[in-house]
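G., the chain you wanted modeled:
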Amino acid sequence: MTLMKGLDVLSRVAKGDNTLGKMSKSLGLNKTTVHRLATTLVEASFLNFSQRDGYSLGTKLLELGYAAQQQITLTRVSHDYLRQLSADTGDTVNLGVLDRHQVHYIDKIPGTRRIEVRCIVGERQLLRHTGLGKALLMDESEDVLREVYMREAAETPRYRYDLKGWLEVMKDYRQRGYTMDLDENEDHVRCVAAPIRDMNNHIIAAISVSSAAQYMDDARIDTLSRYVRDTATAISHEFGFKGQI
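Predicted structure as tokens:
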């Protein structure tokens, strides 16, 4: 209920109600309640407040709006490429972005194999365990990678690589141009992933092909890596990238 009232306050400010009196009248709430809600929104940067101008929309909404626009554009531009990659391989294909130190899955094309890989659009996963996460981190410095590893080790201590081993793996993936998840996130599930880059060569997302381990021996992973990198390159070209993933 409080959340909905807070959203109602945001909506009224967006429509020009810049004082407690105006919002109170529009929403049918007393000024004390509106003030409490508005103060919380100001503290979280969803609203701004000045004595001269009253309330206005805050910078947090710009940040969220930009992120939403980017994700909507990514899914729209990438979707047909993902469908073709899934059709070519028979496997599940995922699209993910970096969000709040996690992988955020924003699109998925199910595979056609008897065993389906579990993944839900909208869910978030740890970075070091997943192919998508490693692909999103491919350009990061060793200091950042250490920070990621230690942060996630505090949440999930059990992992197949120690810090030194993980840094070596990430160095190898950087040279290859693609990353892997070898039963790290889920037992008996493997994936191959590659980053999507923009015109400035910045990583903006990543794609992966996932399947049950029985369909993903070393030879097939090598084959799939070319499919994934070619698809990542094609999507990257849509965003102005000129090179080859």
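The two ends are 47 Å apart (CA to CA).

Shout if anything looks off.
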